[in-house]
Write a structure and sequence with these properties.
alpha+beta, Nuclear Transport Factor 2, Chain: A, six-stranded mixed β-sheet, 7 helices, 12 strands
Length: 280
Amino acid sequence: MKNWVWALGALMILAACSGKKTEVAVQDSVAAIDTLVADTLNIKEAEEVLPVNADELFDDFIFDFSQNEKVQLARISFPLSIVNNGETTKIRRKEWTYDPLFANRDYYTILYNQEQEQQLEKDTALVNVRVEYLNLDNRLAKRYDFQRYQGRGMWLLCNITNEQFTQEKDPVDFLDFYQKFANDSIFQREHVTDPLKFITFDPDDDFQVIETTLELDQWFAFRPELPQHELTNVVYGQNYEGANQKLICFRGCGNGLNTILTFQRQEKGWMLTGFEDTSE
């Protein structure tokens, strides 16, 4: 009986010690998380560099992020992970150099599957957005992953990845087609529908658009400048896998440019089937 009581007491002591260890471990874990957040993000600074409404739409945020070095320093989760073909390195705040993203360009491009997907740009519920540079010559993608900081609603750059195009993330066959389309005028001529659907502002009423068509030679006269070596992209949630239509949207950086090229996969391959120019 005494042995049984002794064993029970030992078990109770062991359980108490184990409980204290567990409690201490949890406290240490929470402290580690708090320390990590404190080291990587100055909440007060992050909230002060931008007005509250600047985080509502990602497009508003990324404009400020691209233009302002102070915003970048306050809205990057340091140490920032840089992944190069699967190998990760980290850079600290003092090592970061200002990255203009789209700020030094006349325009940037976005890839969509359907016209309706353009509404994603106005979605205030987004929590993950990826900005990309797609190098068509060597099939390399540079991806900037942004996330909303939970509980605050502020956008942060969380990591940068450099990698080869992947079928899971990129419309690889379309990008290969587009590179040839942009660089080979004979190939381009063979992959434009004739007549080509054309949408633009009514010359007699700037508030109305007209839908008409262009003959093949008119396309070459009116076509926009086509990026030959690199496309930019903003992924708000588009899934490119298996889609038989692609839209390339040209968005001006403060110059009113707004052009859309619509491509459809047909029997003879990808074809340009629509051209919209509602630039201001």
